[in-house]
Amino acid sequence: MKSEVRSFIASARSIVVKIGSSALTDLREGLDTGRLDQLADALEARMRAGTDVIVVSSGAVSAGIAPLGLKKRPTDLATKQAAASVGQLALAHAWGTSFARFGRTVGQVLLTADDISNRAHHANAQRTLDRLRSLHAVAVVNENDTVATNEIRFGDNDRLAALVAHLAGADALVLLSDVDGLYDGDPRRVLAGRPPAKPVPEVAGPEDLDGVIAGAGGALGTGGMASKLAAARLAADSGVPVLLAAAADADRALSDASVGTAFAARAERLSARKFWVRHAAETSGRLMLDDGAVQAVSRRRSLLSAGIVATSGHYFDGDVVELVDKRGVIHARGVSSYGADDVATMLGHSTSQLPAELRRPVVHADDLVLVH
Ligand SMILES: Nc1ncnc2c1ncn2[C@@H]1O[C@H](COP(=O)(O)OP(=O)(O)O)[C@@H](O)[C@H]1O
Ligand SMILES: N[C@@H](CCC(=O)OP(=O)(O)O)C(=O)O
């Protein structure tokens, strides 16, 4: 019998599907358009069944390797960016050509980490994805590799896909790779004296990951299984179930979700705003709380100025700050209702001692998420 999580993913109204470089490209041949067509077939079938689909497609860097006459995936930033600029063009063109077989239009959406962490950019990206969907076009998302430097990268497209799933309010995330699911060790590396790696069909919680060794990826992938696991947990811990499967099994993964590893959602879904506060926003300041305020915040109460003993950093109203105890341990993140200059004048004051314009909670309970 199919598990609840697989049934949920199979019938989800909106999904994000991430496809890894290793599934789309070959070191010598470049882009594998046959595989890409097979994926577009499965994606189109799911869309025709009534599901909204956003594609996160890796492969720009690896699709640029062969045309530039390089022998292996570059490691230095400049060559990676040059390869991505060549490869992204080929990648977008290939997706466009493939979906054109069904009369389906493709929109390319290239994002930087700042587009997710900055509230205004975040809203712009959200609006574009939304409108593409309402126009029945399929968004093909990738990191904007030519401008992303090491310091400001998402890190890998598995994480980008988990963030996009939340940004777009998707019900489920599907990660398609060259491996047919999670194993308790890298199935490609058979170690002497150790039994072959065993598949892990379902992950209900962290206990199912005990003893699992998530290793590096292949010659074309970036983050390997470790980044897939981190992204799956990021999504599942904030309410979005995940299916990790082989791109070669895309038709089954996208029709009945009967293949690969399914990760159950472990919590109520965080609102898009709380998800942003918790995972996406950059913090620009810190508020140090007394013990009573730490307790109140832990019980998800609004933070009042009376419980704040110090403020640091330069932040404005609407920016995200960390809430720390006197030892500097972070307990929560939240949106500050005031800028740093105002908060500095409010420290330790009870609401009744403050002028009327400073009497709102410094962080409202609705804008506060606990950090475990
Ligand atoms: N525990 C594991 N289970 C499954 N695959 C693993 C594991 N540890 C490492 N891997 C490797 O991770 C690879 C997938 O990662 P990667 O090459 O980055 O893919 P992609 O390009 O799809 O992002 C697989 O080919 C596999 O060899
Ligand atoms: N943005 C990069 C992909 C980075 C990445 O995470 O790749 P992968 O591990 O194959 O999903 C590219 O298009 O080459």
What would your notes on this structure say?
This protein has helices at 4-11, 21-24, 33-48, 60-65, 77-100, 113-117, 119-134, 157-167, 224-237, 250-255, 272-280, 291-298, 340-346, and strands spanning 14-19, 25-26, 30-31, 52-57, 106-111, 138-143, 172-177, 202-203, 242-246, 261-263, 283-289, 308-313, 320-324, 330-335, 368-370. The protein has 372 residues and is α/β, with parallel strands linked by helices. It folds into 2 domains: 4-271, Acetylglutamate kinase-like (Carbamate kinase, 3-Layer(aba) Sandwich); 282-370, Archaeosine Trna-guanine Transglycosylase, Chain: A, domain 4 (Roll). The protein is globular and about 70 Å long. The mean pLDDT is 92. The structure holds adenosine-5'-diphosphate and the ligand N[C@@H](CCC(=O)OP(=O)(O)O)C(=O)O. Adenosine-5'-diphosphate (ADP) binds at residues 20-23, 58, 177-179, 182-183, 185-188, 212-215, 217-218, 220-225. This is Glutamate 5-kinase.
- CATH-level-4 superfamily name of the largest domain: Acetylglutamate kinase-like
Could you name the CATH class of the largest domain?
A: Alpha Beta
Number of domains: 2
Mean pLDDT across residues: 92
CATH topology name of the largest domain, in short, is Carbamate kinase
